Structure formats: structure tokens, C-alpha cells
Amino acid sequence: MGRSSKKGPYIDEKLLKKVMNQKSMGKKEPIKTWARASQIPPEFVGHTFMIHTGRAFKEVYISETMVGHRLGEFALTRTFRGHGRVVKRVVTKT
Predict the structure, then answer these.
(1) Residues of 56-80 as b/e, b for ≥16 C-beta within 10 angstroms?
(2) Half-sphere exposure (Cβ direction) of 33: Cα atoms closer than 13 Å
(3) Tally of CB atoms within 10 A around 10
(4) What is the pLDDT of residues 14-65, one digit of tens each?
(5) Of residues 10 and 90, more confidently modeled
(6) How many CB atoms lie within 10 A of CB 91?
(7) Which sign does the torsion angle of CA 18, 47, 80, 12 carry?
(8) Strand order in 31-33's β-sheet?
(9) Phi/psi at 56 (5° precision)
(10) Which residue among 3, 35, 48, 91 is least packed, with the fewest CB closer than 10 Å?
């Protein structure tokens, strides 16, 4: 179940303030954040975020197609190392 439409999208206030500050200064440095649940508003487009994965920070560049999604969707927390391998067993008779 999603967030109520009358409340509007959840956007971390500190994060939005940092983006607006960078826009006014004209800088494009990566912004470090732990706010994975924050939705991406149109103001974030063109900025780079360092999103925490629980262990490290992953650098993510925000594009127009990402608007409306959550920041955590683009910084995966688990590394897929493949499914189990098939191992042939050699049967020896004694």
C-alpha cells in the first residue's frame, strides 16, 4: 500500500535543502545520503548521489526516468554471485 496522495511524496528535507544549495552555488559534487526511502523529485535530476547500501556508498547519477522512484531502488544492498553450480560426481567401484 502506498503513501496517501493527500500527504504527497516523501522527500527527505535535508536532502532537498542540499540539492537546492548546490543549484544556487552551481556545484555538482556527489551528495552522501543514508535516506534510501526518499522519493526522487524533478529537482534531483542532473545531480549525483552517494547512496548507502549498508556497507558502502554507491554513486548514482539521477536522470529524468528515475523521477518518482525511491533512491534505494538504484543502490542494491545484495550482491548476486550466481546460482549453485552443477558438479559431476565420479563414482568409483572398489
Answers:
(1) eeeebebeeebeeebbbebbeeeee
(2) 30
(3) 12
(4) 999 999 999 999 988 999 999 999 999 999 999 999 999 999 999 999 999 9
(5) 10
(6) 4
(7) positive
(8) 31-33, 48-52, 57-61
(9) -145, 175
(10) 91
Cell of 70: 525511491
Cα–Cα separations (whole angstroms), residue 78 to 6, 22, 36, 52: 34, 31, 14, 12
Written as nine digits, the cell of 52 is: 548507502
Q: What is the pTM of this model?
A: 0.80
CA 71 to chain centre: 4
- In this structure, the strands spanning 31-33 and 48-52 are parallel
Residue 53 C-alpha cell reads as: 547500501
